[in-house]
Amino acid sequence: MKMEQEQPKEGDTGIRLEIVQLPNRGGINNFDASQLSFEPQSESSDPTPTSRNGSSKQAPEKKLTLFAFRQALLEKSASGLGKLAFVWATVVLLGGFAITLERKDFMFVTIILVIESTRIFSRSHELEWQHQSASTLGGAGTYSLRSLQSSSRLFYRAVSAAVNPFSVIRRDGDRSRRPARSNRAVGSSRDDSAVESTDQRTWHGPDVPLLPYAGWVFVSKNVSRVLSWLQLLSALACAALSLMRLIQQDYGSVGPESRNRKPALNLFYTLALAEALIFLMEKAYWTWRILYCNLLETVSRECELEEGGIVSIRRFFYEAYAKCIDGSVFDGLKMDLVTFAKELLNSEFRDEQLLGAQVLEKFVNCAQFADDTLRKIGTSTWVIERLAEMLNWKNPAEEEIRRCAAEIVSKLAGKRQNVLRVAAIPGAIESISSLLHSGKTSNMAPHKMSKRSDAADGTNYDFSVFNLLGLLILKKLAADHDNCWKIGNARGLLPKIIDLTSASKTLLRDDRAPDSQIRTVKRSLQVVKMLVSTTGTTGKFLRQEISEIVFTVSNIREIIQNGESHMVLQKLGIEVLKNLAMDDNAKEKIGSTGGITKLLLSSFLRPGFTEEKEALERLMGALTKPVLQINASRILRNLCAYSRAESSDHVGRMTAAMPTVLKSIMEAKEKLLEVSIGLTTQICKLMDPDEFAEALKQASIEETDLVEKLVRTLEKYTFPEIKVPRIRRFVIEQAIWMMKSNRNSIQLFKKFEMENLLGSVAETTSQLECFHIFSGSVGLIQHSKPLSSLLEMALDLMIDS
Predict the structure, then answer these.
(1) How many other CB atoms are found less than 10 A from the CB of residue 464?
(2) Residue 728 to residues 215, 466, 631, 710, 772: CA-CA distances in angstroms?
(3) CA–CA separation, 693 vs 691, rounded Å?
(4) pTM, 2 dp
(5) 351-373 pLDDT, tens per residue?
(6) Is 249 left (phi over 0), alpha (psi -120 to 50) or beta?
(7) At what angle do helices 309-326 and 62-87 cross, to 10 degrees?
(8) Which residues pair with 452 in a beta bridge?
């Protein structure tokens, strides 16, 4: 899309601008109204929403919730039978028939009750240890002490506290216990030292030492294994004892006082046997699904969580199982991984926050789950707030959490319905701005900054990743007009963006330059381009603010001058300058920056030219090249229209291009025809009638043929045309010049009934023909003369003759 000016008013300076819209990236469409063009753009309807990519098959985690439901059903059935057997033994057998029981049965019942009590105790604690240990597993699900130490859960806390009761009051640099929901603004910085100081003065549940100097008790790699084996042995013993007594049936002599002894004991042993068998069935089902069918690994693989995902899957399963056990057996069926991960984000513990962020980050990057995940995140305001808060976390220990949060927000902002939701979060723009910190002094070229810079505490911190993610988020947010205003008003954000456009000669000409640095420059230029191309008062404000930053134009000059091997960067830089030139002050800054004009012409023509004369010759030569013909015609037309007096000698040479332009008029159509006639109207002002006649002769064109072509063009476009909104104006201007220069031309125009056509044009004029350029469907710069006055002048010339 391109822009030009014509018929300058007094005191105006000429400028030629061109905007070429790059292909859409990242799923965000630049709104039409933000693009300048020579033709108005009709308001297009919103793009068809992308359909959900969710697979038709059920979510993989449903296998886990169903397994948890079945396990809980078996567990509660066994527990119910166990309770019934316990009540029957204590109330009926031991309480009502103790004096009539044989010594053997009394011992068997007592032993079975003890065994069952032990199993129930072991089972309840095993579930707790399994649940707690699920969050202490390493990346591959191993039980290494190192992975336990990275956790904040019960097992390692108990071990540490038992070994050294004073360890809990030491400063733990890796510990992060903060209120999950605070009243401070999202963008405000956190006082981590204050949070940790508070932790040091209070006991935390898992940190309380259970037994002093008893660390050896917890040497086992997994306490739940001991409890699990204890349950298994208890169940086997219970089943064996019960089955043996049911087979033996020697309950003593039968008398009046013991007539109910046998059925009572048979019922008790049957209940105990049934409970033990159901529990063994539960254990067998557990072993088959978990160990032999690798259920957790299968679900992790289907969720595309990669190797480390087993930790999250295991934790999710135990959460679902615990809900089925603690409440209704159906409670766990209501769980899903996305909701589970969202809840982990709100945890007080860093390892849980990391698990939640990693799951969501994997899902938003997975085609199968992305749409559903983003929908659930986008409809939860508190989750967006939490993610925006995480963007501002600068503690090196939280680098991975911050990166995952930035990745999620970048995907979230890619959905049209979420763009406003993200920007509406108080402090969100400021948090995004914190991602653009580059770890270097202002305007230092990126190649001078290492990929990882030293943080305040000496830990290496990767700034380049966050720079790219921050720019990507801003790029997607800038697709909305209101967000552009917020970006422009965010304190210190625009200078950060401009700072990232800095690229030194060394970086641009280094074939081995890190790709991340080139991508950072490219993405920052894309953001600037979107901001300066915004329409209305917001666009005017942004162009002023960006042009006021002293490094804007100079950074782009370096890119145009040294970026021969990075043409995309050069193109983006030129587009930024083109849009900035809409502002008068910015136009002056561009013109006063040394070498800019020469570099722009060099980019259009060829590198290395030094003389203005050579530039004009190259432009005229471009009139014969189809790829450059339209743009070259527009540049030459503006040079003719806006050249100063001191450049008149150079401009005068353009009359030599008249034969070529006349040939284009006779052969071209639509846009090329429009710009060719427009160029002719300007070149004619530099020549007399004799020179014009000579140009016609050199082009082997008769004046009658030219007049007929102009008339037929006017006849074809009986109504204003969006694709060529100035063609009727240019035809009338050319006709006026020809009739003024040679009165014989008036007769030729009358011969082809030009007068009637002018009357028809007068009845169909519109605002479409009154502007030089358009922004979407809005006209920006009006022509100095209205079309109605040109029509009146042409009609007067024809009538007076």
Answers:
(1) 20
(2) 94, 53, 20, 9, 13
(3) 5
(4) 0.68
(5) 889 999 999 999 999 888 889 99
(6) left
(7) 40
(8) 462
